[in-house]
Amino acid sequence: MDLKKWRADRGGCNNARSTQKADFKSIEKELKGKFADDIGKLLGRPDIHQLGERNQKFYVYFLQKGPQCEDMKAKSEAEKVILKFNAVGLLSEITYQTRPL
To answer: What per-residue string of b and e applies to 1-36 under the rule 16 or more CB within 10 Å gives b?
Structure first.
């Protein structure tokens, strides 16, 4: 996986991340169990960072161009990968979705 390209594609606006989806899926097992800070260093700052209940954290990385390219707060049906961190900050779940956040 080309992490430099991944990090440079803020919001998925250059569609560089969409071409790396299969590569990302191949390293999912290696990513699980890592701390949020380590994931941030590896994948770059998330496009959206949300706090959930019970101290859970969610990092959202857009995989394709969409309305978020004009306004990051805009509802977007662009494909995204969502990384869920548990209360102690370890990556516990990786999901893909197109539903707006």
So the answer is: eeeeebbebbbbbeebbeebeeebeeeeeeeeebeb
- 46 and 40 in contact (C-beta within 8 Å)? yes
85 close to 59: Cβ distance less than 8 angstroms: yes
Q: Residues 6 or more apart from 77 whose CB is under 8 A from it?
A: 66, 98, 99, 100
**12 φ/ψ sector (left φ>0, alpha ψ -120 to 50, else beta):** left
Could you give the angle at the alpha carbon of 11 between the alpha carbons of 7 and 16, nearest 5°?
Answer: 60
Which residues are CB-contacts of 16 (< 8 A; sequence separation ≥ 6)? 2, 5, 6, 8, 9
- What is the model's pTM? 0.92
Distance from C-alpha of 50 to C-alpha of 77, rounded to nearest angstrom: 17
pLDDT single digits (tens) 14-58:
989 999 999 999 999 999 999 999 999 999 999 999 998 888 999
